[in-house]
Design brief:
Elements (H helix, E strand, L loop, with lengths): L1 H10 L1 E2 L3 H7 L2 H33 L7 H30 L8 H38 L12 H15 L7 E7 L6 E7 L1 H4 L2 H47 L6 H35 L2 H4 L2 H19 L1 H8 L1 H12 L4 H5 L23 E4 L2 E4 L3
Parallel strand pairs: 1-2
Antiparallel strand pairs: 2-3, 4-5
Helix pairs in contact: 3-4, 3-11, 3-13, 4-5, 5-6, 5-8, 8-9, 9-11
Length: 385
């Protein structure tokens, strides 16, 4: 009988509301939260949503076919969903803070169990899509003709299996939090709050799991992407140099050589800069996910680091479209034709924007699209080779 009474009393305990929490936390945290999650993050999310929607529109055009574009569409879809799931997270941190105050059980359940699971799961899917794309490009550029079929298997099947496997791996994160029911003082309504599942988070299983998770979805992909892209860059430069010598040996005029050199330099700068960008954007999240706890969240320096890590990761998945437009001529032309139809001159006159292609000869392989797609960590750009 005593146990029942104690259980009932615990169910209707007085709530620790966000207003009460603000009296205990560093006053600078409120200002940091308002600027980071109320101004900067929504602005980045808007750019990311628009960019990834345009990505999907362009990448579904008829001229955007091939193995590379299937993975690029999968990456853009995962990035778009990750950004969308970031919005309720930002609203929760901005309005409800860490514990929350929800009258609806379903809303409390989402924030306690599904918030991090869905957001981090979509980010993991994006990383795996990018890794699969990079492997296929590495094989087609560095080992042309050696594989008659995609190395990662049928692309349409792979883009289905990657999300399934990723969300299964992230499933234990559903149990990070738990829902509590409490009463608003004095004699107010019952509300729901979330708190850490301390028993689960301190278990040996979770301590090992969270480290393995970061290695699989952050550390290892960063190393692999950098290594594959470095090799692609080296092979591409050698190919350009060989073609340059062949061109100069066949003709006295070298009008095409400046174009070739400019394209080579652009690709080298793209691969090098985006590899560093991916490393900078992802590394803080590795530390954050391993050290995240209610105790650390009460510290102002940790909150600064948390906000910076979240903003960097959202930026990483929001600027892909703008990277495409900056470095891919075919992507820009397809975007222009898509936006012009049926209102622009191309749609009214039945003419389309001419496609400009690189003067470089392109190798013919069974696993590459008409132009070889070169994957970069966090971004994907297409370059003619």
């Amino acid at each position: 009988m005593t146990d029942v009474v104690n259980a009932t009393e615990s169910d209707i305990r007085l709530c620790l509301l966000p207003n009460n929490e603000s009296m205990l936390e560093d006053p600078r945290i409120a200002t940091l939260t308002r600027i980071s999650y109320g101004i900067i993050l929504p602005s980045i999310c808007c750019l990311g949503i628009i960019g990834n929607i345009l990505n999907l529109v362009v990448l579904t055009r008829r001229n955007m076919r091939g193995t590379a574009y299937i993975y690029m569409r999968g990456y853009s879809a995962a990035a778009l969903l990750a950004i969308l799931f970031c919005i309720p997270f930002a609203l929760r941190v901005l309005i409800h803070k860490e514990t929350g105050r929800w009258s609806n059980w379903a809303q409390a359940f989402y924030h306690a169990h599904l918030e991090l699971f869905l957001g981090n799961g979509c980010l993991g899917v994006g990383v795996m899509m990018l890794l699969a794309l990079t492997v296929e490009r590495y094989v087609s550029v560095c080992h042309p003709g050696q594989h008659t079929r995609p190395l990662c298997g049928p692309p349409h099947l792979t883009v289905v299996l990657i999300p399934l496997a990723t969300f299964v791996v992230y499933l234990p994160s559903v149990f990070r939090g738990e829902i509590t029911k409490c009463q608003v003082p004095p004699a107010g309504p019952l509300i729901y709050q979330k708190r850490e599942n301390v028993l689960f988070l301190h278990s040996l299983f979770y301590q090992v799991y969270k480290i393995v998770l970061e290695v699989v979805f952050k550390v290892a992909p960063t190393i692999l992407l950098a290594g594959f892209n470095l090799r692609i860059m080296i092979v591409y430069r050698k190919s350009c140099e060989r073609r340059r010598r062949m061109t100069l040996s066949r003709t006295v005029s070298n009008d095409e050589d400046p174009r070739t050199f400019a394209e080579e330099r652009r690709l080298v700068l793209l691969l090098g800069s985006t590899s560093i960008l991916f490393l900078v954007c992802v590394s803080p999240m590795v530390i954050l996910n391993v050290t995240l706890s209610e105790t650390n969240l009460s510290l102002y320096p940790y909150q600064v680091f948390r906000a910076l890590a979240n903003l960097l990761e959202v930026i990483n998945y929001s600027i892909t479209f703008y990277i495409y437009c900056l470095f891919s001529e075919d992507f820009r032309n397809t975007l222009i034709r898509t936006l012009q139809w049926p209102w622009g001159p191309a749609g009214r006159n039945g003419r389309s924007v001419p496609m400009k292609h690189s003067p470089l000869p392109r190798p013919t392989t069974t696993t590459t699209p008409p132009t070889t797609a070169v994957a970069t960590p966090g971004h994907v750009a297409r370059a003619s080779v």
